[in-house]
Design brief:
4 helices; five-stranded antiparallel beta sheet; alpha+beta; homotrimer; 48% strand; 2 domains; nine-stranded antiparallel beta sheet; elongated; Proliferating Cell Nuclear Antigen
Amino acid sequence: MFELKIDNAKYWRDCVESIVSLIDEGSFNISKEGISLKAMDPSGISMVSFFMPSKAFSKFEVEKATSIGLNIENLGKVLSRARDDEVLVMKDADSKLLIEFIGKGVRRRYKLPLIDVRKNVDKEPNVQFDANVEVAGEPLKEIIKDANLISSYISFKAAKDSFTITAHGDSGELEEVHEPDGNIIKRLEAQKAAEATFNLEYLENMVKSCPVGNSITMSLRSNEPIKMSYNIGDAVITYYLAPYMES
Amino acid sequence: MFELKIDNAKYWRDCVESIVSLIDEGSFNISKEGISLKAMDPSGISMVSFFMPSKAFSKFEVEKATSIGLNIENLGKVLSRARDDEVLVMKDADSKLLIEFIGKGVRRRYKLPLIDVRKNVDKEPNVQFDANVEVAGEPLKEIIKDANLISSYISFKAAKDSFTITAHGDSGELEEVHEPDGNIIKRLEAQKAAEATFNLEYLENMVKSCPVGNSITMSLRSNEPIKMSYNIGDAVITYYLAPYMES
Amino acid sequence: MFELKIDNAKYWRDCVESIVSLIDEGSFNISKEGISLKAMDPSGISMVSFFMPSKAFSKFEVEKATSIGLNIENLGKVLSRARDDEVLVMKDADSKLLIEFIGKGVRRRYKLPLIDVRKNVDKEPNVQFDANVEVAGEPLKEIIKDANLISSYISFKAAKDSFTITAHGDSGELEEVHEPDGNIIKRLEAQKAAEATFNLEYLENMVKSCPVGNSITMSLRSNEPIKMSYNIGDAVITYYLAPYMES
């Protein structure tokens, strides 16, 4: 038995969009601390870890810690129907998730079936990262588009004084050198130079829900998975993506 | 012989768009009272009835009542070419419909062939409706999208104190309860509760030409066709749609 | 060895877009006077001639006149990545074209391979035109859309006092008569009436890069190619298109 209430339905929609960009189904864990989800994408090369603290809700009642498996894609579609100024309530009802949008003079109730999630994921990859780069979200989205012109892969290289992006393809090459001037690169810490190559399509999905004006923190270690993380209000979304190894 | 003139070509375009959303061909009847069209959609489950009074025109000359059969889809495309501040003239010329857009220093004349319309429709369905609901147009468009997430059909239920929408599908259920608070439901009169289910694609086409800010009046009787009607300036568009009977 | 610098990267992007709308590959000739390109479209029925004077660049260094063959489509895609307030530098480097976008704290360098252009074009068609019509760019784009409703071809007729557009098709006819009132038709000079028919798809591609507010000059002679030309800042783009001969 649980009942969660958010004063701004569109905020919860934005949170779920950050999950659905990689994941089609998963289990939300609801406990006194808040609501969380860990899941791998169907291909198994990326992972999502989401957490939203109970304080982000105007009502957060949960009898005992519980887990609800959902088709996240359907959940995202239902939440896309949120209107301005609507309050959202989520609760369990007859083995379904009841999603109620409450506006002026109208209650809209969707019921979604609970599902058995095939694969549950408990822990995040354990990598000792060598470098952390904090990049403004909008420019990072543009950088990914820059590389997309040329290739399906992008290489990130974090060094002491610069963050470099490269991409290679039949139609040309790209090299972008960024200095940490506080404009695009907000922060750059590299104990050791770190370089790795990643699939652009996954990266694109990982950055796209970053709210305008927010920064994205990337953690790198040569030829290891990248960790990417940003805030959506009080919630935190973290992604991991395995490196691409050129054969 | 007729000659009709409208000072705002885009207004007539909007009127024809409300017809073309369901109908691909039909006959306009032009008489002293105005211009009207009644037609069934090709599948025969819906009907359009349009009327625009002669006073909506700045010139309305018609010798004797006449009927012109047109490919309404082509007519709609031609009218989509209306520019701001253009006057529109329609007249008959050599068994064609001459459509003239008159702007500054330019006359653009389209001629459309007249066609024999296969099926003419004279009268509207005769239903003794039990309930009338007046709904603001924009929210009704959103309600239809709400249901579209879940199903291809929507059920409307008008009762004394509430107007309820339901939809059911494999991915979930929707129930929306609206009170007639004057915000979304402008008016609700139900002599008797009335409930019926309709195809969403047709409903979507029926509401889409409703001008922003206008209301749509729906008349219902259990398991009978729905009547939907709204104004476009001085013109009135009315649609009928047969109910969907679950087998 | 050359190095060209433009203070507004998006300006050069706009210039290249005017070429890429018809041409997929071609050779730029770089000489002290400026940069130019002449190329035929793959079908051979149209031609592009582009010229941008050296004064349009903030730096224009060229040791000796040189020619660089490029996949113009790829060049266009790279230039589409220009951001606001970026400076653009183009130079040769290791048999590639280096395109450098310089913004605040970031240098983005694309390298594009040089290619052997299959067919080089040296001269423009030699036609003694009978009429010149200068038309505002935006209305001309609309005129082309007007005709597109009805046909894949459009006829232009320039006479002493009027410029007339016609199109014919199964779904109807169009006739537009424009007087040279300075509004849409800025200038009309016809020593002799000139009339010819052209493919609309090509015309559409030819007019689409005309900057908002600019005029397009068309030169006509009956059943001869049309010449169309407009300015993009200091650059001039000229197109030729063979007439369509109804069989």
